[in-house]
Specification:
Largest sheet: 4 strands, parallel
Strand content: 5-15%
Number of strands: 8
Strand order of the largest sheet: 2-1-3-4
Shape: globular
Structural class: alpha/beta
Number of helices: 15
Bound molecules: iron/sulfur cluster
Helix content: 40-55%
Radius of gyration: 21 Å
Length: 413
């Protein structure tokens, strides 16, 4: 039977799909995970469940959580107010879209529809609020639709500067962070305290360094950490309490350092484009099966778009400066460097032999960047392949063929 049509502001009266995974309130399952394999299995189950089992467990234990749409929300602000920040990055392949299609146009990325679908069907009820950074028109409009569809919840659109050279840029961003803080304070039921933000900066710095170590290990010894393992271990950090993720990463890194698998011939590639909507795990596995060793990527940025944030002085200003001064060239962001120099630096830094543009279907910001990146790569004769994906892809024959042809043409020419 066709799903009933909704207008913006209405929610379905259907019961949301029954949660498939119930975690204990203290998330003990993660602490008792015996090793990397068990952590990865658990991560696959948790992240594949569009009812957000970690946020539900957190709520049952009396906590509050705030969801953020990718990419640039400083989740440290949510953490500093004692709440759980969770990145909501689409519904993945397990979510059936039955309502959001009626509200959003056909030529929009899948993540916008699956995120709205989850809101309309009660799957996001564990969250007290939603933050949408203004990364594109789709994200901006989602904030408005959420505000009307979930009137009892806090929603906020975070404006980000595009001009990095003006004297007004830093005060503007600090003011924007303060606007967000004011709403978060109401949700948290407590006032912002710079000391708490300093502690949060230290926690996020630690998490960022560990994720960096995982990425280094992957770049230096790609055979010892599969792409799917790395992806799941990293993405857990966008949903777990950050302190727990830090514990897991420390244990995982100790185990992985002792791993020594036989390396195999593969084309070292940097994957560019999937900073927002995420490819399926099957597509990630296919990259490796086809002979790619992914030595650089932007699947799960967490807060890797800047380095350590100092805690001395005004922590809010430090956070704003970190965003403005980070030479990170992922999409939907003007940067202090140019896009062309950025892609070349990434290739050089990772020792990549080629670039794979993996762009979400209908993601205009990612597609626009490809034009600039390609020009830079062509000048240096660096090979690249461009492919589109959707978070709900199920067939990969064409992708396999494209990938295998690309790899063979570079490895065996
Ligand atoms: S996938 Fe692209 S177009 Fe869609 S919300 Fe993300 S950045 Fe915007």
């Amino acid at each position: 039977m066709a799903a009933p049509l909704l207008t913006i502001g209405e929610r379905t009266e259907e019961e949301p799909a029954a949660p498939s995974l119930e975690l204990s309130n203290d998330l003990a399952e993660f602490r008792s995970a015996a090793g990397v394999a068990e952590m990865v299995r658990l991560a696959g189950e948790v992240l594949g469940d569009p009812t957000f089992p970690v946020a539900r467990a957190w709520k049952r234990a009396g906590g509050r959580s705030v969801a953020t749409f990718p990419v640039y929300t400083p989740q440290e602000l949510i953490h500093a107010l004692g709440m759980l920040p969770v990145t909501v990055q689409g519904g993945g392949e397990n979510l059936e879209i039955t309502h959001a299609d009626a509200l959003l146009g056909s030529f929009l990325c899948s993540i916008s529809k699956s995120t709205l679908e989850m809101a309309l069907t009660g799957r996001l009820d564990a969250f007290e609020g939603f933050v949408f950074p203004y990364i594109c028109d789709v994200s901006r409009n989602l904030e408005g639709i959420f505000a009307r569809s979930l009137p009892g919840k806090m929603t906020h659109m975070l404006h980000l500067p595009q001009n990095f050279g003006s004297a007004a840029t830093l005060p503007f961003l600090i003011a924007e962070y303060r606007r967000l803080l004011a709403k978060l304070e109401r949700v948290a039921g407590r006032a912002y305290d710079p000391e708490h933000l300093r502690a949060s900066l230290a926690t996020f710095n630690r998490q960022r360094r560990l994720v960096g170590e995982l990425a280094d290990l992957r770049r230096e010894r790609p055979a010892d950490l599969s792409l799917v393992e790395m992806y799941l271990l990293t993405r857990l950090g966008s949903t777990l309490p950050r302190e727990l993720h830090i514990e897991l990463l420390e244990r995982a890194l100790a185990e992985l350092t002792a791993r020594h698998r036989k390396p195999r011939d593969a084309l070292r590639v940097v994957v560019v484009g999937p900073f927002c909507e995420q490819p399926t795990l099957d597509l990630l596995s296919l990259l490796e099966e086809s002979g790619c060793a992914v030595v650089g990527e932007e699947f799960q940025m967490l807060s890797r778009w800047y380095g350590d944030v100092p805690s001395e002085g005004d922590p809010l200003e430090n956070l704003a400066r970190a965003y403005l001064e980070a030479p990170v060239d992922i999409g939907v962001r003007a940067t202090p460097t140019t896009k062309e120099a950025g892609i070349l630096a990434r290739v050089e830094r990772t020792g990549a032999q080629g670039v794979l543009f993996l762009t979400a279907k209908f993601c205009e910001p990612a597609l626009e960047d490809v034009v600039l990146y390609r020009r830079a790569l062509e000048k240096r004769n660096i090979p690249y392949l461009q492919m589109e994906f959707e978070e709900r892809s199920t067939t990969y024959e064409q992708a396999r063929l494209q990938l295998e042809t690309f790899v063979e043409s570079q490895l065996f020419d």
